[in-house]
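Quick one - first record:
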Amino acid sequence: MLPKNTRRSLPMSLLRGREAVMSRFRPMLARHNVSEQQWRVLRVLAEAGPLDASDVCERASILAPSLTRIIKTLVERQFITVGKFKDDGRRVQLSIAPPGSALIEELQPERQAIYDEIEARFGPERIEQLLDLLEALIHSQNGLGEPASAEDADA
């Protein structure tokens, strides 16, 4: 059944929810001249270590043509490095560089304060529930079945 108006439309609600959350982080990123997409790439590389470009695209939810431009900017700013994988010289290896790690570390207290405020307003249990529901939605649409719950992952 189609929603009667955009207020209850799933795509529109997801966009409004993303906007409500990201509007809290944008000022912090703007002060450091980092775009949302650049930040996602930095966070993914800091979390996962060296990755090839296709893995970065998937994990950071970025289209490949956009990643090419983002890589160029991040390399120019010395936030990431580009190399080749030892076992496959055709694959490009992206890694976070020390200045990129330093930026993430520098922004950690402000990021934590933003997360804490979001959690205080929405509730930690509801955030966990929302994250679990979104993960289940993603898996269901990608044909992957139900993901493990956060409680199962902790066990």
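second record:
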Amino acid sequence: MTKEQAEYFRGVYDRQADRIYRISMIYLKNESDAEDALQSIFVKQIEKDKRFDDPEQEKAWYITVTKNYCKDVLKSSWSKHSSLYEMEEEPPAKEEDNDLKTDVANALNALPPVDREILYLYYYEGYKIKEIAKILNYRESTVGSKLVAARDRLKVKMEEDQNAR
């Protein structure tokens, strides 16, 4: 790898690594699997020498590749044979469990993957409904209705969690 290639990929990594990791955590709910996804996605990108001129195209490409990678992992026989204990294991409680961010993150993780994905793209990545529809291959009306439903489910889940305390 040339110095120029190394600098380019280092820049891409700096721009995209956090996003890939967060999306992987949404799907895989496991730090080591999310780290594996991050590494695998970048290794493939380096091997293919994939480059982008447009930052938005780069961002959308990484979101789509990450989503597809995670779906493949979840379909694999390895994840299907994971024990129930591993799948339900929760991270250790932290001091800031009462913090709103933690409450939202916990409620988000309890939602179905489609809800998490749409909410993440809309609120964390700042995509518009039209852009989300293109990324996920849905109609705009479908994304709009799924977004409303996901918000409602998130609200209900957060209220349930508040009442359980």
